[in-house]
Amino acid sequence: MSVMSTIHVVGGVGVADTAMASYDAALANANLHNYNLIAVSSVVPADATVRHVDRAPDLGPAGNALTVVEARRTVGPSDEVDFREGGRAGAEAADSKRAPRRRPNVAAGLGWTTGPGPGLFYEVTGADSEDVRERIHAGLDDGSELRDWELPERDLHVETAAAEPERYTTAVVIAAYGESESVL
Questions:
Q1: In the chain, N or C: fewer CB atoms in 10 Å?
Q2: What is the span of the domain harbouring residue 171?
Q3: For 33-100, where are the alpha helices, taking DSSP H only?
Q4: How far apart are CA 30 and CA 174, in angstroms?
């Protein structure tokens, strides 16, 4: 199977001092940081093979355009969740009713389903990996039913990370279509 007809699914996680830098670090973790990513909707061409890989192979020169479907979630220092006990309104010692603030996790997932013809990708992000997985399966079910396609083969990949205090954390899962192409 040639690289041109292969869609590589790869995930990555990055942590940095800005949202964009954490995204770039996540792309580097997946080995896709040197391409200009061009997002498309989620249809798998009939002649493509989808392969999950730990790290994307060399898909061409740096600066080229690479066609992708992407699931991406970033959380930053201000994205804390404040959990409070019920009945807090009017409490004299309101601060004592406050549970510790916590940082939400990052989860990004991409599912795919294929068959004898075209297939589908479905991308989901959130804070809980199991919720992301369930929503991927539901989305693939809905997309398959909408198209009335026979799609018996199914798989998914979810990247997760605990957010780091005072920094940005990004999780990505990307389906990279074939090889990159020159933008000029």
A1: C
A2: 3-55+64-79+101-181
A3: none
A4: 8
At 85, list the tokens: 């006990």
How many domains would you assign to the chain? 1
Rounded to 5 degrees, φ, ψ at 120 are -135, 150
Q: Give the C-alpha separation, 146 to 138, whole Å.
A: 12
Q: What is the pTM of this model?
A: 0.86
CA 30 → CA 22, 87, 94, 103, distances in Å?
13, 46, 45, 24
DSSP 6-23: EEEEEEEEEEESSHHHHH
CB 85, CB 149: distance < 8 Å: no
- List Cβ neighbours of 17 (8 Å cut-off, separation of 6 or more): 167, 168
| CATH number, domain containing residue 120 | 3.50.20.10
Instruction: Give 112-161 pLDDT, tens digit per residue.
Output: 999 999 999 999 999 999 999 999 999 999 999 999 898 999 999 999 99
**What are the φ/ψ torsions at residue 159 (nearest 5 degrees)?**
-105, 135
